[in-house]
Automatic annotation (TrEMBL):
It is an enzyme of class 1 (oxidoreductase). GO terms for molecular function: ferric-chelate reductase (NADPH) activity. Pfam families: FAD_binding_8 (PF08022), NAD_binding_6 (PF08030). This is ferric-chelate reductase (NADPH). GO terms for cellular component: plasma membrane. Its main location: membrane. Residues 260-298 are annotated as: Disordered. Residues 58-169 form the FAD-binding FR-type domain. InterPro entries: FAD-bd_8 (IPR013112), FAD-bd_FR_type (IPR017927), Fe_red_NAD-bd_6 (IPR013121), Ferric/Cupric_Reductase (IPR051410), FNR_nucleotide-bd (IPR039261), Riboflavin_synthase-like_b-brl (IPR017938). The chain crosses the membrane at residues 12-29, 41-61.
Length: 371
């Protein structure tokens, strides 16, 4: 059922609307005013109507109707959506966006993960939310076509949220952070990296804070690798004090085949791999002396090996309790692999008891489903 829903989502959604309408008609016809059935219908209708009206009123009252989204197409075909306003959010949160001016699609909302931090602008004191959207089908494909036809277009939007998000305390107190992203989830890593840079360059540093961050980016396309490196370079340039920090940031970008992420193996003779090898040799824009190590490679990473390496590596700090925070945003297959690997790691830690030779004693896992 899940695979059919993902491959034919538009048909899946339309068929369920039709089925729900037919069910309601036959339900009323079947009950036929028997006993007090209408009392239950009226009560259920009132409750549903109130919930619907509350969500709509909240959308209009909390953010208003004057926000506009700026659309632009990235070199890797991601759609960048930026919305400026006086609102707050936390890393990893997502928000529902309703794009106006697109006919019946103006009545639908779409969840996207926020790929920026709520930093105040020096110009007007507003904050800018950034989203990186990969067109898959349905409305996102239509949005990409619109952006291609209207570069740097501006659309009116209605906002609902933000919702979800990362356990903020875990993001701040875990000694080690492991960020794993796949596909369009690469944008999910940017605000987490910036949050780590802010903590690393803060003048008043707390004793319990992340000492290292490992970021793993998995993508099928070399253009996404180049885009991420450029975005990372722009981000690092905003923190000149990073060179004096003792914290460690390691980033590895894994290029896979142009085939589906969940299928196929790497072929050294394929044109996509040859293109990737060329990019691996020529693209590394991170300046030296910043405490950052960037290592591109080919092939899918072994998530179990990555997590085992993190929990078994002895710590260079003196805290007794070492913890690892794992944050994943990617395809369902990647999330399942991370879930299994984190569970095995936790069992391994429990089997060793309270002392793990300077390694990790606690594993925290967060899975982000939107991107």
């Amino acid at each position: 059922m899940r695979s059919s829903r993902e491959t034919s989502y538009e048909f899946f959604k339309a068929s369920h609307f039709v089925a729900a309408f037919i069910f309601a008609l036959f339900f009323f016809w079947h009950c036929d005013f028997r006993l007090s059935s209408w009392d239950y219908f009226i009560a259920a209708g009132i409750i549903y109507a109130l919930c619907f009206l509350y969500s709509q009123i909240r959308m209009y009252v909390e953010y208003g109707i004057n926000h506009r989204a700026r659309l632009s197409l990235m070199p890797n075909d991601f759609i960048k959506v930026t919305i400026r306003g006086n609102f707050m959010w936390k890393p990893g949160q997502h928000i529902f966006i309703r794009f106006l001016g697109h006919g019946l699609h103006s009545l639908t909302t779409h969840p996207f993960t926020i790929c920026s931090l709520p930093t105040l602008s020096n110009e007007d004191g507003l904050r800018e939310m950034a989203f990186y959207i990969r067109a898959r089908g349905g409305y996102t494909a239509r949005l990409q076509q619109y952006t291609e036809a209207h570069p740097n277009a501006s659309l009116g939007v209605l906002l609902d949220g933000p919702y979800g998000g990362i356990h903020h305390e875990k993001l701040n107190v875990c000694n080690r952070l492991l960020i794993i992203t796949g596909g369009s989830g690469a944008g999910f890593a940017l605000p987490l990296i910036e949050h780590f840079l802010i903590l690393s360059t803060a003048s008043q540093r707390h004793h319990e804070m992340p000492k290292s961050m490992t970021v793993v980016i998995v993508t099928r396309h070399s253009r996404t690798k180049i885009w991420f490196e450029e975005s990372l370079n722009d981000l690092i340039s905003q923190y000149p004090a990073l060179s004096s920090s003792t914290n460690k940031l390691e980033i590895s970008i894994h290029l896979t085949n142009d085939n589906d992420f969940d299928a196929g193996t790497n072929s050294s003779s394929s044109p996509s791999t040859l293109e990737s090898k060329e990019v691996l040799e020529t693209s590394n824009p991170i300046p030296p002396g910043k405490g950052i190590h960037l290592s591109p490679s080919l092939g899918r990473p072994n998530l179990s090996d990555l997590i085992n390496k993190e929990i078994s590596t002895p710590s260079t700090v003196t805290e007794q309790h070492q913890s690892l925070g794992i944050f994943v945003c990617g395809p369902p297959g990647m999330q399942q692999d991370a879930r299994v690997a984190a569970g095995k790691a936790q069992v391994q830690i429990l089997g060793k008891g309270a002392h793990t030779d300077g390694g990790v004693q606690e594993v925290y896992l967060h899975l982000e489903h939107f991107s």
